[in-house]
Amino acid sequence: MAAGPDRVTGIEHAFREEWGAVVATLARRLGDLQAAEDATAEAFAAASVAWARDGVPPNPGGWLTVTAWRKAVDTYRASGRSTAVDPTILNEVTEKPEETVMPEPLGDDRLGLVFACCHPALAVEARVALTLRFVAGLTTRDIAAAFVVPEATLAQRLVRAKRKIRETGIRFTVPSSPAHLAERLSSVRMVVYLVFNEGFAASAGAALVRDDLCDEAIWLGRLLRSLLPADPETAGLLALMLLHSSRRAARLAPDGRPVPLAEQDRALWNRTLIEEGSRILDDALELHSPGPYQLQAAIAALHASAGSYESTDWPQIALLYRALARLDPSPVVEVNRAVAVGMADGPLAGLAVLAPVLASGALSEYAPLHAAHGFLLDKAGDPERARGAWGRAAETSGNAAVRDELLRRHEID
Amino acid sequence: MKYALLIYTETSGEEYHRITTGLRQPGAAQGPWTDYTRAAREAGVLAGAEQLAHSETATTVRYTDGPPLITDGPYLETKEHLLGFYLVDVDDLDAALDWARQMPVHPGQTVEVRAVLSGMPWQRALTE
């Protein structure tokens, strides 16, 4: 994939990772993301002076963490307030650097930060904003631009969320009970996948694909997997994002028009991503604990390995959608299953799967429902009704590029 | 008989945070609430008192058919939020209302007085 000028460089990410690691360690000790962020900012400012003068220390991360910790301790002592997490903070000695008690770095500080940022007690938009800000290290301005909201709105969302974390005692730790861990982990995965989907099928704005968000989500997926190597669904999520991502270059025509899966030039699919995604998926499946992300990744892998749309293993895909519907019933899954059944067993069978979804009206504003309906009606030889369905698909699509393409293809004015 | 004196305010989350932060500063004035609390305690009527974080930071657990659903925000989105409460143990409602009237609340704030039920079976577990 071509790297555009806006793509995140490795150095930037390395810097952001260092920043995120310091914030994570301080947040765990302070229970306060704002205080951790402020102290880390001071430490980075101090580094720019000290390192220019004395050279970069042998352990830059350790230097930054100790410096940030001292700054935080100073702030707490000046205010005379303790923290809920660490009541002894006021007794810490900061005048003598050699006596500063190092915040013991824990391997899972980053993970604790992820769990706090994705706590289900926070609004979903707040979870997304916190995760991108503090785990991925994006600036408030970048996140606001990515989600097409005013920067002030996003900043306010972050301020409130940080306050809620501090005042309600959300801890920066990994939940210890298995039941809590499962619930909280599913929120973490949801947040990462939400970021990916916003990038992969941008619902706001004119562009179809927002590479920056896809890349951030994959980066988060890799981080999560490195922190939770034994969790099959976390691996499934990463595999799913990589496999979807492999098609990015083929999803847009040179003139920017979206290209449906059936017509994509499969030579443009990124083999490296397909191989990596498939390998991660295979490893996950060996753990014999299937879940929605692994199933979706398995479907994406079947698409990725097919030579053409027609020769895709549609019966297998239809079965996987059925398994997915059983695990996680939703009308959206039924829409996808209808297309797969339509390809496997003929358009009438597909329309039969779609009928209850259309009748329920639950997804009447969901463009892919109408697109699937149009597709199956076309295949069934009913162009008149198909055109009506395509018209509804265009009406309900929030994405300008998709809407224009639907109107053009189906010659709808 | 016990009464809960529930103190409501229309202060926004932002403003409330600013005020509570200021009050926590070392050297911040003790203020009228300290005097009120001391008076209630010395009169032997104080059974408890707490101040709450702003309702903006509330988390709500909703019970439906499936597993309980956790959502961000208060049960009711209202302008007024419950700021805190005193639990007073006095002879009758008039005495409870007297303690409510003495509260150093600001104009625009409201105190709701609610009697506490006693003799409920579950309450035995409190002291067993």
Describe the structure.
- The complex is a heterodimer of chains A (413) and B (128).
- Chain A has 18 helices and no strands.
- Chain A is mainly alpha-helical and 413 residues long.
- In chain B, strand 3 and strand 4 (69-72) form a beta hairpin.
- Chain B has 128 residues and is an alpha+beta fold.
- Chain B is 29% helix and 29% strand.
- Chain B has 4 helices and 6 strands, in the order βααββββαβα.
- The chains are: A mainly alpha (413), B alpha+beta (128).
- At the A-B interface, helix 7 of A face helix 1 and strand 4 of B.
Which sequence of SSEs, written as H and E, runs from N to C of chain B? EHHEEEEHEH
**Structural class determined from secondary elements of chain A:** mainly alpha
Number of helical segments of chain B? Answer: 4
Compressed to H and E, one letter per element, the order of chain A equals HHHHHHHHHHHHHHHHHH
Which key phrases capture this entry?
heterodimer, A: 413 residues, mainly alpha, Serine Threonine Protein Phosphatase 5, Tetratricopeptide repeat, 18 helices, disordered N terminus, B: 128 residues, alpha+beta, Alpha-Beta Plaits, four-stranded antiparallel β-sheet, two-stranded antiparallel sheet, 4 helices
How would the blueprint of this fold be written?
The complex is a heterodimer of chains A (413) and B (128).
Chain A: H1 10-30, H2 33-54, H3 60-79, H4 109-117, H5 124-135, H6 140-146, H7 151-168, H8 178-200, H9 211-227, H10 232-245, H11 271-285, H12 292-305, H13 314-327, H14 331-345, H15 347-360, H16 367-379, H17 383-396, H18 400-409
Chain B: E1 2-9, H1 13-24, H2 31-42, E2 46-51, E3 59-62, E4 69-72, E5 81-89, H3 93-101, E6 110-115, H4 124-127
Antiparallel strand pairs in B: 1-5, 1-6, 2-5, 3-4
